[in-house]
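User: Predict Alpha-amylase's structure from this.
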Amino acid sequence: HLFEWRWADIAAECERFLGPNGVGGVQISPPNEHIVLNDPWRPWWQRYQPVGYNLCSRSGNENELRDMITRCNNVGVNIYVDAIINHMCGAGGGEGTHSSCGSWFSAGRKDFPSIPFTHLDFNDHKCRTGSGNIENYGDANQVRDCRLVGLLDLALEKDYVRGKVADFMNKLIDMGVAGFRVDACKHMWPGDLSAIYGRLHNLNTKWFNGASRPFIFQEVIDLGGEPITSREYSHLGRVTEFKYGAKLGGIFRKWNGEKLSYTKNWGEGWGFMPNGDALVFVDNHDNQRGHGAGGASIVSFWDSKLHKMAVSYMLAHPYGVTRVMSSFRWNRQIVNGKDQNDWMGPPSHGDGSTKSVPINADQTCGDGWVCEHRWHQIKNMIIFRNVVNGQPHSNWWDNKSNQVAFGRGNRGFIVFNNDDWNLDVTLNTGMPGGTYCDVISGQKEGRANS
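Assistant:
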């Protein structure tokens, strides 16, 4: 997930790094026209407040988007669009042309002429709460029919609204995207999503086989305890498994007596959704800054050693389709456990435009871009995952504490030591006899290992 990257930078990264290292795809930030906010100054979440479906955003214009999709597909890296279809901007978003393409809109009048949506296309008449916002997550109706934190809630049961949403998604499919991360699915009725997905085109045959369908993964925050569950969405596509990163973070932090040795049955044995339904991640753009789900257990780049271990565990383990986070740094200011600066947008120039991503001589990134995907441990584990694909989880070993090891058939083997003492043990790896390359400490260079 190249969070908040510019299209031109993603295109270059596909060609010089992602394609050559076997990365299968990129989740991009929302490409649609969004509100532009001054207070706070250009927050990252302004892109989650659409004002239209024109394809110009903080990351670039439609031509740059098209060029990126083409160049990434040409080197085997698919593009997955973060699709914001539950809502438009906040009810207090004002009126004017403070938008990423300059289109006029009025949040107060619910008027978005560039699409066009009018007051008739929103859910207000269905919402039964006093404020018009979601007040009680124990009530599935208001979670779907009321406003999420004041965001104007689209009436997706209307054929006209479904058509406009599908047109937006189909334009992207025709340009060559491979699928979508669908935002805020918990806040939409599964039947409405099914109707919209049913209108989507097959993928562009320039890059994809005959009748390929878009790959859809749906953001549903389900940590248990609410009436809406991820199961309601799994027949429609993959679903985000938020329990995964929350639990894995607690294990690597050794909270509440959790131990790595307890993960022998990691996956469905931990109460996660079926393997074939899950999209998994150690952290995401929300929960790395305290939004969304997972709380303080989430391990992000701020805890770099634990993050490298947790991401390596995820990439080594067969459960789920995996997503690696690629972040930007911001000036964290924690007061009473809450980051006062959790709103801060990407590295940017004085005029608010997003900075390009410079690549340093040592292959790391500069100017505040973290580029976890370039950390050699993570890059090499992406390669490992591709090598061991389809092989079973095998040859498990643990020390009843925080030292574990497991293999993937006869193709790869990994060892973790999250205890405070050395690990010295002889293990059965399941690998053919020989001398192997340790890809966490070094990497293959030519025919030798660094």
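Residues 86 and 154 are 6 Å apart (CA to CA).
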